[in-house]
Specification:
2 domains, Neutral Protease, domain 2, about 40% helix, 10 helices, two-stranded antiparallel sheet, Elastase, domain 1, alpha+beta, six-stranded mixed β-sheet
Length: about 350
């Protein structure tokens, strides 16, 4: 598998459903987005070799953010419109992208001592206003890219801060465990991005585990959609139920694991299982989820013990071992073992 895979926040199964709609205002943006995403995935497979270059930057406690404007074209990076030292401007999308990159940088630095995506001060680059009614956001291995959405089904992709954190965390995974983007390892890859996307949102809002909504992409769905987000970590399978999008297919436990050849073996679907395990750990421990539950997941991801083809059970066992190493045999290990048991994944 390629290390720098093309990772989008809206899964193909949602766009596939929309692309089959009878209304051209629904199917046209979805079809354009699907065609675009398929082309970029192919280009990544052709041009990207396994592994990433060793970091060469200088770690800093300050982010280095640059925002570009694609002007509704599909050429990257576009026109530079905002540098790190610039004050907020008139374009709210640019301001949100800048803030979201900063919130991601801050969570990783303050909670885990990580200096940017590669832990060596990697500059954070984002392009906004990408494409025409482009219904997605993605990490392409080098930078963030945000579509404006079609304004009806999907709104501006810089609106949910957890979407920004989710996509940038694909970069963290790329530089650490480098999880293969297929099957269970791919679902773990997606789940890790949801976990830290949610933690970035909680940290930015100073929310405890019981105050958080545990939704990914809240505020992204347009006024025509019956749903509250793209995914729910608290209750996988309940984020949306809509005539156009269909029903959220995510399982919460291995009893409902989805076997499919689509979406790289269901990476955006089965990620609901490890997502729910993390939610259960965080809610059992209480307090700020980034402190104990997040520390366990971060150490498991970055500690060097996670193979690129790791399955759910591999990750569960590693989180259990990591918990004991970090916290001993207290409440933390009991919460981790119980959570994995509840979702049907052996952790011992």
């Amino acid at each position: 598998m390629n290390s720098a895979v093309f990772c989008t926040v809206v899964p193909p199964h949602i766009l596939d459903r929309l692309a089959q709609h009878e209304d051209p205002t629904v199917y046209e943006p979805a079809r354009r987005t699907l065609e675009h995403d398929a082309l970029l995935r192919t280009q990544r497979r052709i041009t990207t070799v396994r592994g990433v270059a060793a970091p060469t930057g200088t770690p800093s406690d300050k982010p280095a953010r640059t925002i570009y404007d694609a002007g509704h074209q599909e050429t990257l990076p576009g026109t530079k419109v905002h540098a790190e030292s610039d004050p907020p401007g008139r374009d709210a999308t640019v301001n949100r992208a800048h803030a979201g990159l900063g919130a991601t940088f801050e969570l990783y630095l303050k909670a885990y001592g990580r200096h940017s995506i590669d832990d060596s001060g990697l500059p954070l680059i984002a392009t906004v206003h990408y494409g025409e009614k482009y219904d997605n956001a993605f990490w392409n291995g080098d930078q963030m890219v945000f579509g404006d959405g079609d304004g009806d089904l999907f709104l501006d992709f810089t609106l949910p801060i957890d979407v920004i954190g989710h996509e940038l965390t694909h970069g963290v995974t790329q530089h650490t465990a480098n999880l293969d983007y297929f099957g269970q390892s791919g679902a773990l890859n997606e789940s890790v991005s949801d976990v830290f996307g949610s933690l970035i949102k909680q940290y930015a809002l100073s929310q405890s585990a019981d105050q958080a909504d545990w939704l990914i992409g809240a505020g992204l769905l347009g006024p025509r959609i019956h749903g509250e987000a793209l995914r729910s970590m608290k209750a996988p399978g309940t984020a949306y139920d809509d005539p156009q999008l269909g029903k959220d297919p995510q399982p919460a436990t291995m009893d409902d694991y989805v076997r499919t050849s689509r979406d790289n073996g269901g990476v955006h679907i089965n990620s609901g299982i490890p997502n729910h395990a993390f939610y259960l750990v965080a809610s059992a421990l209480g307090g700020n989820a980034w402190e104990r539950a997040g520390k366990i997941w971060y150490a498991a991801l970055t500690g060097g013990g996670l193979g690129t083809g790791a399955q759910f059970a591999d990750f569960a066992r590693l989180t259990a071992a990591t918990t004991r190493s970090l916290f001993g045999d207290g409440d933390e290990i009991q919460a981790v073992l119980k959570a994995w048991s509840q979702v049907g994944v052996p952790a011992t």
